[in-house]
Amino acid sequence: MQANIVVLPGDGIGPEVTAAALSVLRTVARRYGHEFAFHEHDIGGIAIDKHGDPLPAATLAACQKADAVLLGAVGGPKWSDPNARIRPEQGLLALRKGLGLFANLRPVRPHPAALNASPIKPHLLTGVDIMVVRELTGGIYFGDKTRSADSASDLCSYSVDEIERVVRSAFRLARQRRGYLVSVDKANVLETSRLWRDVTARIGRDEFADVRLEHVLVDAMAMHLLSKPREYDVIVTENMFGDILTDEASMLAGSLGLLPSASLGDGKIGVYEPIHGSAPDIAGKGIANPYATILSCAMLLRHSLGLYDEADCIERAVDGALNAHAFTADLSSSGQHLSTDAAAQAVIEQMQAHCYVAE
Ligand code: NAD
Ligand code: IPM
Ligand code: MN
């Protein structure tokens, strides 16, 4: 197949991990006989520097026309002045909003070979397989913001429609998996959470009676995620809770550098990106873990291009690389570790053994 993929490397380690992931995608294209055209555009801090805008119109237009978008990360100290008027992160938020990507899928599956990288006891981690569905275009991120000399405010609001569509996505996923959905909120305090809980309960009752639904408060969930992660299947939650809980959940896998994501809406277009940021502390050193971005490419192939064998190929090759202890610094306890590019190369080598092309 032919596909147009927009690549937004962004800032910090973004260009390093996307370059590594593209080497994997190019190999997939060669093996399976596809033609992927990659179109690179600016977003984030680099776009502020070059165009004075964290999401230039040309970038958004290219994404709207593409079959899928692969993104690295945005942000960094250069653009982080608390009084800055324009920030890299605004570009990412505008992209998600502009493409209508309301559901952010963040799978968490600790790998058996990397359990030592996690601060959690290994016996709690075996068999953990969680899918977090984070609402991505509403809530406190997008409400009105005010700032005066002696006060500031961020409005958190949700409409019934916004809740219904993301919760339905989560129910559908739960139905395909183990039939268990946990909805996370703060309904003991927040009005938006009480609406969230009402809507979720109604949709469960009316449309997904076969899925077991539970409501859990976000503070308790932060604890349960670490004490009994194996119990969970699909977790759905609003924008900010989902942001925070998934960075926490990355510690089950052992590193932020292992968690991919897919941001989806009603159409085929999706943005695929690691859940981590631009990691300014390691940027430019060539040591960032590329697996989260490589696994995001697998999600891209599956969700936007419908290339299921190719997606499985990447996931099996990453499994193989981890089994072979192809560890970057964040995963290694021995002091020995691979560079970003060498880790991507290890994945490519594993394709030989793990990917079969139907004749
Ligand atoms: P971060 O995710 O960039 O880094 C947190 C820690 O995890 C750092 O110690 C970093 O070195 C490590 N880390 C992250 N990714 C890694 C990888 N692939 N391999 C190895 N180690 C990795 O979070 P932060 O430092 O709080 O934020 C830095 C900047 O990134 C901020 O400007 C923030 O807004 C931005 N950010 C962007 C995104 C995004 O573009 N989607 C996501 C999160 C944060
Ligand atoms: C993420 C990031 C972003 C978010 C920031 C950079 C706007 O933390 O993708 O998880 O909070 O959504
Ligand atoms: Mn985040």
TrEMBL record:
The EC number(s) this enzyme carries: 1.1.1.85
Pfam family, one: Iso_dh
Binding sites annotated in the UniProt record for Mg(2+): D219, D243, D247
Localization: Cytoplasm
Organism placement in taxonomy: Bacteria, Pseudomonadati, Pseudomonadota, Gammaproteobacteria, Lysobacterales
UniProt-recorded name of the protein: 3-isopropylmalate dehydrogenase
Obligatory cofactor(s): Mn(2+); Mg(2+)
Enzyme class: oxidoreductase
